Amino acid sequence: MTRILTSLTRRSILAAGIAAGLAWLPGGGALAADPIRIGLVAALSGQSAKSGEAITRGLSIAIDEINAAGGVLGRPLELVSRDDESNPGKGLLAARELVQRQGVVALIGGLDTPVSLAIVPFANDAKVPFIGPWAAGTPITRNGAAENYIFRVSAVDAYVGEALVEYAVDEYGAKKPGMILINNPWGESNEDALHHALETRGMATAGVEKFETNDVDVVPQLTRLKEAGADTLFMVANVAPSSQVVKSLDRMGWDVPIVSHWGPAGGRFTELAGPSGSRVHFIQTFVFTEDMSGRSAELMAKLKAKYPEIKTIADVTPATGIANAYDAMHLLAVAIGNAGSTDGPAIRQALYGIEEHEGLIKTYRKPFSPENQDALGPEDYVFSHFVEGKILPLGK
Amino acid sequence: MLLTSALISGLGLGAMYGLIALGFHVTYSVSNTVNFAQGSAVMLGAVLGYTFMVTLGWPFWAAVPAALAGCALLGLVVERALVRPFVSRGSDSWLMATVAGGILLDNTVLFTFGKEPRSLPSPLASEPVSLFGAGVYPLQLVIPVVGIAIAVVLQLVFRRTRLGKVLLAVVQNRDAARLMGIDAKAVVATSFALAAVLAGIAGLLIAPLYSVHSEMGMLFGLKAFAVAILGGITSAPGVVIAGLLYGVIEALVTAYLGSTYTQIVVFSVIILALTLMPNGLLGRAAVNKV
Amino acid sequence: MRQSGSASQLPLTLGIVALTAAGAAFAWTVGGYFSFVAALVALTTVVGVGLNVLVGLTGQISLGHVGFYALGAYAVAILTLAGLDYWVAFVLAGLITGCVGGLLALPALRVSGPYLAMVTIAFGFIVEHGTIEARGLTGGQNGLMGFAGPHLGGADFDDRQIAIFAILLAGAALVLFQRLLYSGWGRAMLAVRDSETAARSTALSPILVKTSAFALSAALTGLAGAVFAPLMMFIAPSSFMFSQSILFLFAVMVGGVGWTLGPLAGAIVTVLLPELLADLAEYRLLFFSVTLILVLWLAPSGIVGALARVLRREARALPPVPAPAEAVAFIERARDGLSLVADRIGISFGGIRAADEVSFEAPPGRITSIIGPNGAGKTTVLNMIGAFYRPSQGSIRLGQDELAGRTPTDVSRAGIARTYQTTRLFETLSVLDNILIGLRRGRLGNPTARLGSAEEARLASALLHFVGYRGSVMALAGDLPHVDRRLVEIARALALRPRVLLLDEPAAGLAESEKKELAALVRIIADHGLAVVLVEHDMGMVMGISDHIVVLDAGRPIAAGTPDAVRTNPAVIEAYLGAGEMQARPRAGAWAASGEPVLEVADLAAGYSAAPVLKRIGLSVARGEMVGILGANGAGKSTTMRAIVGLLRPVEGRIALGGAEIQREAAHQIARRGVALVPEGRQVFPELTVLDNILIGACRRGAGDYSAEVARLLERFPRLKDRIGSRAGLLSGGEQQMLAVARGLMAKPEVLLLDEPSLGLAPAMIEELFAVLADLRDEGTTILIVDQMAKMTLGVADRAYVLEQGRVVRAGPAAELAEDASLEEAYLGGAAQDDGATPRAAAR
């Protein structure tokens, strides 16, 4: 009896599976004329889930605003999200599915540089605009395509490297800086950028040390840098590994200045790293502050309303992700509106045609051109640090 | 100073790998299966510890047993749902099922505990002390002591007590053990619970030095599997020694050869070691009588 | 996991071609995302086929195949960036990964199980980190792009064409696997997986076979990677993470390990499932893992395996007409052939001389037997001749050919064939394939051609007929009854066309009538000119057919000569044969039935998988009674024991202990109620001391002080007293049997069950054992015994049951049964008939 039951259940599950499989096949579901679909490809699970969530939130708030104002071309916007699991292959597959099956008019996303790079040839080929709100790898936008459909509203590693070196020299008088970098594409891309920035100044590095996301102890690497005579550290890593660096420095009792990429802003840095976390000065494109006003305050209010788990500004990390995505979405909507069509090439031209747009991070003036597909530049970077769990900008 | 700190850090981490690896040893010995979600049990121990201690504000003495009880429950569920159904049908799919179970648990924690790494405070990991010129947190010294102590206690229980004999009997001949009135299924289930508890202890120990998040266990689990194999998964002392060795080699390679090649060197060493010692350091060859 | 070599391959091959065509048509018509997905399914299939060669055929698990995938992808990317043509790079990628696979096989060959898994995991990580660190070559973390892809007639493939290419590759891989599966190589891989030991003594080289499997597996995976690169147009280390290895293995397991279409089914699940779940966005991985577990639950042995179970048709190829003459002509050797000479050979293990100064000559046409008590070193001598052990001294020659120090593979090719104490057939192969593999003598031939020509198949059937096997040649060797296993193993050995045949306890576990036929067969084999070396405990057989006997004790030869000379040698009697004619001591007075049954079995039906072994058996044992169960092999004796103690579940019918029904209880619960089984093969706990083994027996009685009781027990088993502190695994077979009985007695059981206690024991030891059993009986222990030594059993028992094909055919007082002439012939070996009874083999 039990056996019959089990086999019945098994069969029905099998049947359900087959039905689901058939439903997935092409033929059904013609493209809906309404609304306009925007695709998001980002790492939504795993270690980068928090950043993916920030991008999703920034985009959602922006889309809510746009739809509340009547949408674009009289149609509402709709976000279709896909998880790429930080895997370039899955990212490309997701991008293809979004474009070729879901009929999205533009892609936003790419948390990891390799995922973005994997999507680049496809997006250019399919003539679908792809706007990056996060991945900072230089070649993403400078990909050499004759018709470049890749845009970015985020930092660019080449510029960040420059800014970090400049800050270290100006602020700390660094002569022989060392690098402590996470062993992933982001770290590697910044290694190149930092080397380049140091070279142009004729400076030497005390050494480059890599560490893994799951490393508990970074003392060996740091000791090597210390023994090589490093006077400043450049740090590139996400919030948890960054805190391991700070804790290891604490144990060593090495009070060296740390100039960092934006990793620490990705979470509760001072909770993880302890009070010494505030000695890390890191780059940001945007910071929520206690006494903010205007658009930042509005956005904060909307975030709190839409996501009840957000109570203070300590809960909206990484702010950069939210802000970049928010501005990217608005810029895209403006372009679609100006283009008067959801046609890829038209949107691309319209992106180039944006003259002025008042965004969250800044007022964009001619943000994109075929020569520069990056909306943000070194002038938009703000150095900040954590004080008692809150990010405060450092006066420059 | 480089050497001292590398050694201390290596021993601390190594003892932790050893603890997690003992879990692999225990279940493998009893049932020839392992829980590939062992890394997730490390994470669960830390996450539950954080939840009970920080979020709910329970005292230490209540939170730690509660967290470990949670791990034990995980071990029981894994054995019942992801191992037994396959082993009883002669299928090796428990391997895949426990991996999937790990992904499931990691993602469940991601969406319940939260996507942000958190910090589990401990008085033993706030102020570094100086030891032979190297700064260490007291907790780093506690970990190897606790790790080795647990290994020794386990070994004593196995070798000296009636309970241990019963366990060994199941290990050596399951059917014969059943004929002696030993509930082999219960013993296997217990071994999975014990393995998860060992992982949970490791998670609680490492959390203050590290951060608590849903993916924290994955790499620890993998390294611990390497350790279990390196030591000879059938030998508890071998596993613990291999853990300490692995930790120290890892730290020394990083300290003296640079971090770039740590993984390549360590994994090459594993292949080489297994080529020379196909049953690990102290593992016993499966008797292959002609 | 099992696949019998049956039926024609054609329908499946046509099916694969049709599937490939359909896939290609699908990719061509739909294009875009769907053809991209189809390409990924195809590539995963190719990798799956590669893994299936490894996992399905050689039984080795790899968790590092993503390493080969990455190597293939990087090879084409780097080579085409360096200016090479894609097609050249594609072929090179396959070659390179194949070579790396072959190299990885070297460390991997030395390890197995989880150790192998770890070696492959480490390999995957080394490749991943290697691609990260070799930045100049691989572009580091941020990968490579801009490399060339496949092209035809000057035009580069678009993504649809690449998809079709991938699908064709998958189709080719599936056909290749299908053909490999039934080829000599495929069968050899399965043979090595089933028993590496037997494979080596069947002239197969496990190293060659496994290395080839590894290389082929790696090459297929590398080729898939070589298509993956141009399909993605961009590759980076993060495309080749450890998790991908797990998914590959998952695809093979969920599809069905060892099934040709398994990888396709698995690839469809692993690639399509995440796509079906894509809308779940961040929750996709969560639900994916849940679905994976569900799929595994529904089809624990794989989708194709589950479907095949439903669709399976019994494909029964008719065995070719046997021609015994052909078999005889095949094995016949000239009598002036070469002798096997062992010259003062010896070997030590851990300081103990397992064999010392052993010399004998085994000439062709003669049977040379080696006898001696358990642990005397008989099998050790066979293992030295078979080259499984390297003698530390002395020489082993076949004619002028020195065999000592060579490999088993080598020695078996030189003309030494053997069988094993516990038969070692290639269990997942058919009976026919077992013989065909032997006939090949290590020459495996074309990996895409089916093993066994028509002539070979006829010869194999003839050999099987010659040894007296009358079952289906298509049956899986693992499903054979005991006696057939012995016969097929001998046939496999003969298939090697050996000069020398080594037989290790071939009669163990056989019934008397079967032993007789076996004895005749061995005699005939020798008469055809082979040198036979026989190790055997059955003195009737040894004395009946041997030309020359060597007696070993504690590794040293103590006597040698003709059967008659050895039989009367006092040293041999002292060490081995015991007081002469084996006899069991019956109860002094007649057994007075008390009428109170302790154990009652009624209408018991049970079996393994579908086949019922027991068909409504009924029996009862009264308190203080000793009852025997007799019957031929396969009659259901041991199955009855296993059913009573709960090792076999579920069963139908009723089993009651002291009136309480126990047929639904688990083994440990029944043991706690007081049923103690001394299992077949002793099954002591080898790593525990003798004392701990005894104490574990008292488990059901809880904690307590048993020292006085143990002391009394040791009085009964003086042999154990001296060994009380040593590990049980170090005891001789006889001592282990005593220990197993002692362990059972410690439970103070309501009823003591003994399953084949005399199996594998020397005659003197058997006498001692039965004396102990008689003592126990006299002291009032309730005993149910199953033993092949029917005469001995009837000697000690009060009552007995006779089983035949799962039914009780006779029951009654033991003395009555012992005198029943009709039973005598079938089970008791009857009166000595040394008139060279016509063996089955020679009949007709």
> Largest beta sheet of chain B, briefly?
2 strands, antiparallel
Number of helices of chain B: 11
Helix and strand content put the structural class of chain C at alpha/beta
Q: What structural class results from the helix and strand content of chain B?
A: mainly alpha
Distance between the termini of chain B: 54 Å
- Mind telling me which CATH architecture of the largest domain in chain C this is? 3-Layer(aba) Sandwich
Question: What would CATH call the class of the largest domain in chain C?
Answer: Alpha Beta
CATH fold title of the largest domain in chain C: Rossmann fold
Kindly report how far apart the N and C termini of chain C lie: 39 Å
Write a concise synopsis of the structure shown.
Chain A is of the alpha/beta class and 396 residues long. Chain A is built from 13 helices and 14 strands.
Structural summary, described in words:
- The complex is a heterotrimer of chains A (396), B (290) and C (844).
- Chain A has 396 residues and is α/β, with parallel strands linked by helices.
- Chain A has two domains: 36-155 and 296-379, Response regulator (Rossmann fold, 3-Layer(aba) Sandwich); 158-284, Response regulator (Rossmann fold, 3-Layer(aba) Sandwich), CATH 3.40.50.2300.
- In chain A, 45% of the residues lie in helices and 16% in strands.
- In chain A, strands 7-6-8-9-10-13-14 form a seven-stranded mixed beta sheet, sandwiched between helices. A five-stranded parallel beta sheet of chain A has the order 2-1-3-4-5, with helices on both faces. A two-stranded antiparallel ribbon of chain A has the order 11-12.
- Chain A is globular and about 60 Å long.
- The radius of gyration of chain B is 19 Å and the shape is globular.
- In chain B, strand 1 and strand 2 form a beta hairpin.
- Chain B contains eleven helices and two strands; from the N terminus they run ααααββααααααα.
- Chain B has one domain.
- The mean pLDDT of chain B is 90.
- With 290 residues, chain B is mainly α.
- In chain B, helix 1 (2-31) runs parallel beside helix 5 (138-160), helix 3 (60-87) packs antiparallel against helix 4 and helix 9 packs across helix 10.
- In chain C, strand 15 (597-608) and strand 16 (611-622) form a beta hairpin.
- Chain C is of the alpha/beta class and 844 residues long.
- Chain C is 50% helix and 16% strand.
- Chain C has three domains: 10-241, no CATH class; 324-577, Rossmann fold, CATH 3.40.50.300; 597-674 and 749-828, 3-Layer(aba) Sandwich (Rossmann fold), CATH 3.40.50.300.
- Chains in contact: A-B, A-C, B-C.
- Chains B and C meet through helix 3, helix 4, helix 6, helix 7 and helix 9 of B and helix 4, helix 5, helix 11, helix 13 and helix 26 of C.
